[in-house]
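Hello again, I could really use a second opinion on something today. I've been staring at a protein lately and its backbone has me curious. You're getting the sequence in one-letter code plus the fold written as tokens. I'd be grateful if you could look everything over and explain what you see. No rush at all, and the record is pasted right below:
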Amino acid sequence: MTNKIMCRMGDGERVWLPSEQVKEDILRGTQDAAERAHIPELTSEDGERLFDIIADPSKVVSVEPGEEVIVTDDAASMLFYADQENSGQGIPMSRTQSLLAYERACAADTISIGHTDYSYKQVKPIINYETQEYYNASQVTTAPFFYGSQPNMGLYFQPDGPYPNPAELLPEGKISQALEAQEIALEHLADDLVYIGKRMNAVGCEGFNFDTAASAGDADFKATLKAVSKLKEVAPGMSIEVGMSSEFVMGMHGDMTYNGKRLAGLYPHEQVKVVEEAGADIFGPAINVNTSESIPWNLSRAVTFVKATVAVAEIPVHPNVGMGVCGVPMFEVPPVDAVTRASKSLVQIGKADGL
């Protein structure tokens, strides 16, 4: 193991790599991001700092004093009571109890809840229950309190929803029908998102999180942007966070635009500008992890994307640091050594405002 650095692969496998290979992977990673998105590579100084963070012999690393950032989450407190198959601990406790434990025992900067299914389509039929749950919890918590879920336009297509499924129509060559289905579904989704947001705002919701936006492509993203814009008109005091599902907006439709900007193919530094235009308060880029590459390669890519995004953003940027994105291995319970290195690198080199 002499002269080798303990690292991870993108799937979480622990490996020992020579220093030269770690440096080479860092260079290849930033070059890949720069080439794909036409953004600047990390500087040689950035690369050296990233190497030092990865090569740190400590199991857990952290930012330097004074560079701490705010952390938002997508119902992290749910992990206390969720079953083990969903990465939870299965502790018999209520949502409110889990929120209090997360806020007070874990000293959370912000807290949040969401429906167990974590998709807004599932929330609408039980909105009365969810607003009551949020209101009751808000009376005993102190930290800024978000309600979150995924737009998840895929649930609006058959067999889960009412509209024909583009994933079935496109292979059959039914292009116009596939496009029409997405155009109709996005309006339905946007209306539902606004409806739920209004109901939450009525009980004093402090923050609303659109998590994993654009998971069904550019139409999903457009529905989210339309909902954000409308909610900021009717609920200007409710903070809105938009967290992405991928570094690249898939063109499942291809011709979707927002205020004249084509949505398909946008990378994080471009995504943040349309999110700003819609009126959101926080943007969360998600940089995909390649499980066949090392974490030095994956993290270098993520930092490159985030640094370019922060450089043009006018709202806080909170990169998604969860399993399979932004340099964190695609593993159900990500190893702390990789998570803390990703967090430190994104903040100190990528200049992220939060995580």
Remarks:
- The two ends are 33 Å apart (CA to CA).
